[in-house]
Design a protein that fits this description.
Structural class: alpha+beta
Shape: globular
CATH superfamily of the largest domain: Aldehyde oxidase/xanthine dehydrogenase, molybdopterin binding domain
Strand order of the largest sheet: 3-5-1-13-10-11-12
Number of strands: 29
Strand content: 25-35%
CATH topology of the largest domain: Aldehyde Oxidoreductase, domain 4
Largest sheet: 7 strands, mixed
CATH class of the largest domain: Alpha Beta
Radius of gyration: 27 Å
Helix content: 25-40%
CATH architecture of the largest domain: 2-Layer Sandwich
Number of domains: 3
């Protein structure tokens, strides 16, 4: 029986009713008086010099209220290095990827705005595009940016720059003696694996609404995973101080890392300032696919040495990520803390490069760069297991990392539930039994997520009817409102319906980093817990006065303040709340909590996929899928299951069907008919085996939940397809055409 009353219960989301009734407000729902409509002119070339940009005809069109180009952007300045928050939203002198914005228009209607785009004259001088990251790394390759230098991490000579390069980030990690480790091995295996560029697949397109007042203050409504980061981007773009930009949150119709970037909000704000009227902008689905920030393509070479008994003695990986046209983030920084971490490997080397090409920039997508790396490593382990004639699950159990092991980045692994997850999966598969039938196979893969952390604040306002308002500055993309509300209800002894979660704007809410990296509930829970303790301390002092006792004599349990050892002297939370307005005259109690960083709680998961392959068409059908994951403590098992099932569904799409198809750097499959994502017919009911090995970090023993279940899917599916067909596929996606070709080559 659980020791908790609200935490750990399977409760529906607190925002569910507003979503299904249509009451929830999204960016596209914001309607202001005299609203203009904005549209963006985009480059048809992936690499070209802008020789002339003439907007005069468009300006003369009746109904056009404002046009902006790069020359109108106050925040553009010369800089030697491009950073995430300073990326140009409008091309200046040169375009470096197809669909890069060149100009934007605000008009009385969408139709007028679109007509104005047709009247803007742009003369381009096309340049040869650099599309292959391997070619882009060559010293003779044309440079995407003339002023970009490789950021080497760790940099042995800080500040040293030799020459501009298309390699944006180069991360190198070494542990032990790699050469000696390979000499100890009885078998050494080396292979190269490739993955494709894929989109997040969020339902709601990018949208924003902006208005500027007479004093030059800008208010923006936008779906952002980080309100304060969005404010920073907009303020830098407009060259305004932070207090002149207000960002108001709206609901988000899917994000998965894709809405850390703000492609429209800065443009929308500048158009509003220039026109003097509010402006709404919204992307079409075509634009979303062409100019979001998808996961990067990767080329990964893995070398591993093992003994005849299956012990890993050494491993190395060279990872090359196609970062697209701008260095928005370092995937290598993520790989350094997430790759080779689930196994005991005494000697290893990681070499990761983010390489620029003339393609749409890549950035955050659910465990950035890590599903690709695990596709390579877990496929590699599967090959080794079969060559050693070992059970793939047993090989992983034998090499599983445990508390006290040193990770590649030098950190010491805390207690994790990896072996417990492996054992739970082994027991589940034993009960399930072996697969029967023709062309069926089972694949195993494991994943490690180090976790991300951030800084958060929380306010809890106690109302005089005993209900509370929890005020946060972090948007909800994962059901975090419900889980956090459950913690408040648990700590304050309240029913869940007495907790209202308010997501404030950048002027009223406490600071929050971003809702990324599965850090929201994990990190925010500590700030909220501290705010609850503050509330209880303040109300305990009030209760002491009411009961004629010293505050140190007061204890709180299940909604009651009472004098220790005297159950007859008690007063309820609600009575104290009521008295703050009526008796003591100090106003409502306001509890505050904050968190400035917290060590992450590494999370591991074990996946098993059962597939059936049609050897006449090559079509792969997922027949069953199971996940065993250590979540620390499931605050809301319903939410945990949903997160895991959603991640697996996205991973199945990545493994089997999703792909960006380019021609000269221009995406060709820009509809959801051509860019196919999984539907309900493609995914079975996903079995979630929750493992709860509490973390010693944070509160309630929580761990990160949303990212980890994405990581092993690609490898689990590919390993299952090999089991079913005997064909080893080292490149994704496993479309029917690819699989059928492999089967035919097998049968020759």
């Amino acid at each position: 029986m659980s020791k908790y009353s609200v935490v750990g219960r399977r409760l529906p989301r607190v925002d569910a009713l507003s979503k299904v009734t249509g009451e929830a407000v999204f960016s596209g729902d914001i309607a202001l008086p005299h609203l203009l409509h904005g549209k963006v002119l985009r480059s048809p070339y992936s690499h070209a010099v802008i020789r002339r940009l003439d907007v005069r005809k468009a300006q003369g069109l009746d109904g056009v209220m404002a046009i902006i180009t790069a020359s109108d952007v106050p925040g553009y300045k010369k800089r030697s290095e491009l950073t995430f928050s300073e990326l140009p939203h409008l091309a200046k002198d040169k375009v470096v990827y197809a669909e890069q914005p060149v100009a934007a228009v605000a008009a009385l209607s969408k139709e007028i705005a679109e007509k104005a785009l047709d009247l803007i004259r742009v003369d381009y001088e096309a340049l040869p595009p650099v599309l292959d990251p391997l070619e882009a790394m060559e010293p003779t390759s044309p440079l995407i940016h003339q002023d970009l230098y490789t950021n080497i991490i760790p940099n042995p000579e800080p500040g040293k720059k030799d020459r501009p390069s298309n390699i944006a980030y180069h991360v190198k990690i070494n542990k032990g003696d790699l050469e000696a480790g390979f000499k100890e091995a009885d078998m050494i295996l080396e292979n190269t694996y490739r993955t494709q560029k894929v989109h997040h697949g969020f339902i709601e397109p990018f949208a924003a609404v902006a208005a500027a007042d007479a004093n030059g203050k800008v208010t923006v409504w936008t779906q952002s995973q980080g309100l304060f980061i969005a404010r920073q981007m907009i303020a830098q773009f407009l060259d305004l101080p932070r207090n002149r930009v207000k960002v108001i949150p709206v609901e988000i119709g899917g994000a998965f890392g894709g809405k850390t970037y703000q492609p429209l909000a800065p443009l929308c704000a500048l158009l509003a300032m220039k026109s003097g009227r509010p402006v709404r902008m919204e992307m079409t689905r075509d634009e979303v696919l062409k100019d979001s920030r998808p996961a990067p393509e990767s080329i990964i070479t893995v070398k591993m040495g093992v003994t005849d008994q299956g012990t890993i003695t050494a491993a190395s990986a060279e990872l090359i990520y196609d970062a697209g046209a701008f260095p928005e983030m370092s995937h290598g920084m993520f790989t350094s803390s997430n790759v080779f971490c689930q196994y005991k490997i005494p000697n290893l080397s990681l070499d990761t490069k983010d390489v620029l090409t003339n393609k749409v920039p890549s950035a955050y997508y659910r465990a950035p760069g890590i599903p690709q790396a695990h596709f390579a490593i877990e496929s590699h382990l599967d090959i080794i297991a079969r060559r050693l004639k070992m059970d793939p699950l047993e090989l992983r159990i034998q090499n599983a990392a445990v508390k006290g092991d040193t990770l590649p980045n030098g950190e010491i692994l805390p207690r994790v539930g990896f072996k417990e997850s492996l054992e739970k999966m082994a027991e589940y598969l034993k009960q399930k039994g072996n697969l029967t039938g023709r062309n069926r196979g089972r694949g195993i893969a494991c994943g490690f997520w180090h976790g991300a952390v951030g800084s958060f604040g929380a306010y809890i306002q106690v109302n005089n009817n005993g209900s509370v308002n929890l005020i946060l500055g972090i948007t909800d993309i994962s059901g975090s409102r419900t889980s956090i509300a459950q913690i408040v209800a648990e700590e304050l002894g309240l029913p869940l319906n007495k907790v209202t979660v308010v997501i404030g704007d950048t002027e009223t809410a406490p600071w929050a980093t971003m809702s990324v990296g599965s850090l929201t509930v994990y990190s925010l829970s500590t700030a909220v817990y501290r705010a609850c303790q503050d509330v209880k301390a303040q109300m305990g002092s009030l209760a002491a006065k009411k009961l004629g006792a010293d505050p140190s004599e007061i204890e709180f349990s299940k909604g009651l303040f009472q004098v220790k050892g005297n159950t007859e002297k008690s007063i309820s939370f609600t009575e104290i709340a009521r008295s703050t307005a009526m008796t003591f005259g100090k106003g409502p109690v306001l509890g505050r909590g904050a968190l400035d960083g917290l060590p992450p709680a590494p999370t591991l998961s074990v996946h098993a996929a059962d597939v059936e392959v049609d050897d006449e068409t090559g079509k792969v059908r997922i027949k069953a899928y199971a996940v065993a994951q250590d979540v620390g403590l499931a605050i809301n098992p319903l939410s945990v299951e949903g997160q895991i099932q959603g991640a697996v569904t996205q991973g199945i799409g990545w493994a089997l069907m999703e792909n960006y198809i380019f021609e000269k750097g221009v995406m060709q499959n820009t509809t959801l008919l051509d860019y196919r994502m999984p539907t309900a017919t493609d995914v079975p009911m996903i079995e979630v085996l929750i493992v709860e090995v509490g973390s010693s970090r944070g509160v309630y023993g929580l761990r990160h939940v949303g990212e980890p279940p994405m990581i092993p899917v690609l490898a689990a599916v590919a390993n299952a397809v090999h089991s079913a067909t005997g064909v080893r596929f080292k490149e994704l996606p496993l479309t029917p055409e690819v699989v059928l070709k492999g089967i035919k080559q097998r049968d020759k």
